[in-house]
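Hi everyone,

Forwarding the result from last night's run.
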Amino acid sequence: METENSHQILQAGRNCTCIRKASRLSFLVEGEAYYPALRQALIKAERRIAIVAWEFHSQTELCHSDPADGYPTEIGPLLDALLEEKPELEVRVLVWDHSLIYLPEREMKLFSEWRKNAHPCLHFVEDETAPSGASHHQKIVTIDDRLVFAGGMDVSISRWDTSEHRPNEERRINPDGKHYPPYHDIHAAFEGDLATALCEVVYDRWEHATGEQISLNASESELWPDALEATFEDVDVSVSQILSSPEEKPSEIEQLHLDLIAAAKDFIYIENQYLASKTLTEALAARLQEEDGPDVIILLPAETSGWLVQSTVGVMRDRLLQVLHEADRHGRLLTCSPASFDEEGNKANIYVHAKLIVVDDRILKIGSSNLNNRSMGVDSEIDLCIERLDTCDKIKKLRQSLIANHLDLSEPRWAEIEENEASLAKAIRQGSDSESSRQLLPLEYGCDSELKEKLAESELLDPDSPPDPEFHISQSLPDDERHLVLKRITKVAVALTAIVLVGIGFYWAWGQLLSEERARAMLESIKDNSWLPLVVFLTFTIGGSLGISLNFMLVTTAVVLGTQYALLYGISGAMLSSCIGYYLGKTLGKSLLQKLNSKTVAALDEKLANRSFKSVAFVRLLPIAPFFIVNMAAGASQLKFKPYLIGTLLGMAPGMSAVVLLANRAEAFAHQPSLSTSLSLGAVAALLLAAFLYLRKLLAAKPHAS
């Protein structure tokens, strides 16, 4: 008999790609459940193993005991052993070709013996198809096209933990010997038509990245891990996804989340790494304002990971949490973070990486998507969802076991507390005990300045489309050299605009702290410093080697110290910096350089192919690539030093002189506005604009058909 909750939420074409049946499905909570199950299944593989990941590390420990089977416990050596033992087996690993900011955290081929000496049947590909500013965030492992693991966990370091989340867990250690904090995540294992659907997703991604087509060929062998008990059998599961690409498509992921929020009657229970989506926050706030709306319980990490994320997505989280609490008119909101304590009472925050939503114990969603704009419309994601018409005991049991563990309570005790309270939020407050070894603590939040609040509201820190000019101009430009150069020009313009906007923001917030008289006095003291020439020279040398924009340094030097310093020390410092980059590229070779920007490096290789000073001058004159990448690419390309040096000087001097001239005229107009200074500034700006537009026209022009 259908109830008032019987409206079907999951609809293919609206909030999911398809709905498929899983013959068996089990939820794996924490690495202690996922990694051993994965290892058992990998050992049973006969023909194919495919791993799609945001991050992968060959030294990931899958088993923290000495197994009786004799196989290695680390994922890399385990795959090698299986490939040696099984001639028919092939392994494909597809990992997002990560942004440079993640370089210190990743296992690079240059320093990985496993990758440098890869088995012939191991195919390791870094997927560079995502637009700049986007990522491939799906986490899937397929085995013999029959058994699939998917959810929130990559096979990588810093992720394994037990359900106790002990602060001093000795096994929670990385290959470099460093301990990492407690970690909470959820994954799933399944077979059946659902597994087939996920295999198709994986092979589509592989073809998109490599051009190789792979046909499904499911095994009939038993691959299910021996100790893994199925939570569901013959259950319908939806697959919602988004693929990061230059093509704009409606996001099934975002629509799924909005529909789940709208469907709730009693409660919405969320565990997630981030809260940065304004759209989802507004939907939750609207439900909180309703007279008879649902409870909203959100578990987040106490702090976002790392200074960069804290300074960006963390700022948005603080603002959106503030929005939710302001909307909580009826006391139905609970925002908290899990923590564990040792015997002495020392606290360790448990890092929440799960992407779980439970609605009324009848709908359950897990997957890879976070509650931020990137997951809703930028990055590649995949989510799985189960829907029942009424309360599902199996969904309820999973949700209760999670909360009981967070509160360090037995499941029967927590069920009793929940039964005796009017709402889930009240039950969690009632079940919290300050003496427990694990607790759910209230989240601290709030923007501590008006500037941070404005920045959070702007959504600049978590855009809902890739911040890549290619995304917006791909439909109108040819996919050749013109496209690459125009993309670089546009990026330079965007970067300069961003610098201006940031400068305005700083002036708006702190402009009154430094008067014009103080500024002039400071500049005069700088000019009189005897060490100034050396400082400016070293600034250009070191800054250029580190990738700091030469134009930014030129403009700053010209405005602050004058044209002569900018030209003399700018060009000489840039030349020395280019020599440093050249020999660095010559030493490291292309293996490291490809990690910086493989598409750009490929274009540079083509341009530098004739090894002449003219080709160097061309890539210097046109902004094909950042300055320091050109330097390293030239060294790695075996270009001889003499033509490189001559071409660098001939190519850089005109552009640098033009930038300094423009800065000089702008400074003159700022200090003495007059007809002559305004005309000279306008003439220089018009000349440069004409050159830019002419260059843009040439680059954007469609090639003639042959």
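The chain has a mean pLDDT of 79.

Cheers,
N.
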